[in-house]
Write a structure and sequence with these properties.
The chain contains 24 helices and 22 strands. The protein is an alpha+beta fold and 651 residues long. Bound molecules: zinc ion.
């Protein structure tokens, strides 16, 4: 009877985790770990044939929060069956084919947000609710009304329930964080927290989006396919995400899912998988539901990017601005295809806010192209100890100063780590692009040759390098060459190389577009800078102050004296007979370009690429599986260009 005992144990554990996850919005283990014990319980139930009344496998999931009015759904909202491997997916599809013949499926993103259903009566939004436990959810009408893209009035007049996912776009999250006193790290939690906030003004401030994908209930209308439902949603003004593929063969399904997995990092939203739905509603009716899931749909989940591990130590790194960053050393874990041993804790304030301690179990997240981060504490016990706040710079010993959540070493011009980091940034690929100069080389240059500023790089000779440890003829002459080759930077790269606080690559490009030359930029006023779209007061101030600093001016002059020749030619746009000066919208998937690539190319030709079709749009470039934007373009009679014609034009 060990199995029964284990099942009871699992039920207790899972129910506890559910409470943390759904009610407190504060998960204590990672999804993947949760899934593992959940799956273990499912397997045991299957094996023993016993399902206890309080088993979480009988519930859909959520519980209802106190404080919100409860809402009873007109039709039960089911969750989705899931699979984690192509083998499982294949067996699911094979099973369907055996019983119901080969099917047409709709493949869509699995959004990582908060599922919401909305009820319309007489063409008007009357109630919005969370899924809750599938039968009863929370009434979040006031919160949902703050989502601007959701229509309040729709053409369809009979009673209707639509469902979709409330999310925060990553760009909106970044925008929110630019001015937020407490930045939000995780887009899913930011959206869920916004919807479940009793104050709708907080919801409104997060600028949520919502995408719709289903109609659980409708009066006076019958659909025969899922694609009809999607079209109906679009026709009634509901935002539908611009990705949907119609697939049938397992090879096509798997190829598409691979594609999604590879390209998901370019999206402005979080997705954690793909959903495969049978298109034919007659077949769906025949298949029906289990207690939890519809049998006619399945979610393919991508590998989780979040896991728990133990924090063993914290080291403090000094950055090029003097800011100290705590780096946590953790028990190594495999996360999204890489071994993670170190993860950032951002700043001292973050450690305090998250309550992170040495020896505590912590959540580590790894997102694309970002260093792993310690998200929060999973658990602490009495073996945990506080992380000590340093008082002096670990690099130069100077007394630290505290500014908000951050600790700074004020020894800007003398702190070895700051000097190294500034030179490293200056030499980096998207700055001056000095090839073959590593952090280690920079440290040697400083200690052996007393290199102190970025300008000193351009005074170094072949003989200087030869003095360095392990620098032979070839390596020395290579480095001399790459330093020489870096002397003609693009204006935007030079601006980025200067390392002005808050000026990243994108901002540097925006600045380079706005000003004709360095001199103009150095004399720019706060007002001039604020006319650039993405520059706010803080960054504008940083820029003005940077160019007021005598030492920075001297350094720039020294660089120019040493032969740095900034190339302004990139300001002169290449012109193109079709694209220059046009406002262009891209929709659907192209075979030859990603959206970002094509946007860059078109922008180089002086076109403006926007996200929504309006009467001001000059051209819509349409790839495969284009959705509502394509229809809108046809409606407004806007010229449409397909991929073959695009390729001709870009030859
Ligand atoms: Zn220092």
């Amino acid at each position: 009877m060990d199995k029964i005992k284990r099942m009871k144990e699992l039920i207790t554990i899972i129910n506890k985790y559910n409470y943390y996850y759904y009610v407190l919005d504060n998960p204590v283990i990672a999804d993947r770990e949760y899934d593992a014990i959940y799956d273990e319980l499912v397997a045991l139930e299957k094996e023993t044939g016993v399902v206890f009344p309080d088993s979480p496998t009988k519930q859909v999931g959520d519980m209802v929060l106190e404080g919100f009015k409860k809402y009873t759904h007109i039709k039960k909202l089911y969750s989705l069956d899931k699979c984690n491997s192509f083998a499982e997916l294949e067996s699911w599809v094979n099973n369907v084919t055996e019983q119901y013949g080969e099917q047409v499926y709709s493949l869509e993103y699995k959004f990582d947000g908060l599922r919401i259903s909305i009820i319309y009566e007489n063409g008007q939004l009357v109630t919005a609710a969370t899924r809750g436990n599938g039968y009863i959810g929370e009434d979040v009408t006031q919160q949902v009304l703050t989502i601007k893209s959701i229509p309040y009035n729709i053409p369809y007049k009979s009673k209707l329930v639509v469902e979709g996912e409330a999310m925060i776009k990553l760009s909106d999250l970044a925008e929110y964080n630019r001015t937020a006193t407490e930045p939000l790290k995780n887009a899913r939690n930011a959206a869920a927290g916004a919807i479940r906030n009793l104050d709708p003004r907080v919801t409104g401030s997060r600028n949520l989006s919502m995408f719709f994908y289903g109609i659980p209930y409708i009066e006076g209308y019958e659909f025969s396919t899922h694609l009809e439902i999607m079209q109906f949603l679009k026709d009634n003004g509901f935002p539908v995400y611009d990705y949907q593929k119609t697939v049938s063969k397992i090879e096509d399904i798997e190829r598409e899912i691979d594609n999604i997995d590879k390209t998901k990092k370019n999206l402005d939203i979080l997705i954690d998988g793909a959903v495969l739905k049978i298109n034919d509603l007659k077949v769906r009716d025949k298949m029906g539901f289990t207690a939890k899931y519809p049998k006619w749909a399945v979610a393919y989940k991508f590998e989780a990017q979040e896991l728990t591990t133990t924090l063993n130590n914290v080291v403090w790194q000094v950055g090029r601005t003097g800011k100290l960053t705590p780096i946590g050393e953790v028990d190594p874990i495999e996360l999204a295809g890489a071994t993670v041993k170190r993860a950032t804790l951002n700043n001292y304030g973050d450690i305090v806010r998250k309550g992170v301690k040495l020896n505590s179990k912590v959540f580590v997240r790894r997102s694309n192209e970002v260093i792993p981060e310690i998200l929060k504490v999973a658990s602490v016990d009495n073996t945990c100890v506080d992380i000590v706040k340093p008082t002096v710079c670990p690099s130069c010993g100077t007394q630290l100063i505290e500014d908000g959540a951050n600790l700074f070493c004020p020894n800007y011009y003398g702190c070895p780590d700051q000097i190294d980091q500034r030179i490293d940034h200056f030499a980096s690929r998207n700055a001056m692009n000095i090839e073959g100069i590593s952090e280690k080389t920079i440290e040697m240059l400083r200690t052996t040759l007393n290199l102190h500023t970025v300008a000193d790089l351009y005074t170094l000779s072949y003989d200087d390098f030869k003095q360095l440890d392990k620098f032979k003829d070839k390596k020395s002459s290579n480095l001399v060459n790459s330093i020489n080759n870096s002397k003609k930077p693009k204006f935007s790269n030079f601006i980025y190389a200067l390392g002005i606080l808050g000026v990243g690559e994108k901002t540097a490009k925006d600045i380079a577009k706005k000003f004709n030359n360095l001199n103009q930029l150095m004399n720019a006023s706060l007002q001039d800078l604020l006319t650039i779209n993405d520059i706010g007061e803080i960054i504008a101030n940083n820029i003005v102050n940077f160019f007021k600093d005598e030492k920075q001016i001297q350094l720039i002059n020294k660089l120019l004296d040493l032969g740095i020749d900034i190339q302004y030619s990139n300001n002169v746009q290449k012109s193109h007979p079709v694209f220059t000066g046009k406002t262009i919208v891209l929709t659907g998937d192209l075979n030859n370009y990603t959206r970002t690539q094509l946007t860059n190319i078109l922008e180089e030709f002086g076109a403006k690429v926007t996200s929504s079709v309006s009467k001001n749009t000059d051209l819509v470039i349409v790839g495969e599986n284009a959705g509502s934007k394509y229809n809108k373009a046809k409606e407004l009679n806007i010229p449409i260009m397909l991929e073959p014609e695009l390729l001709d034009n870009l030859k």
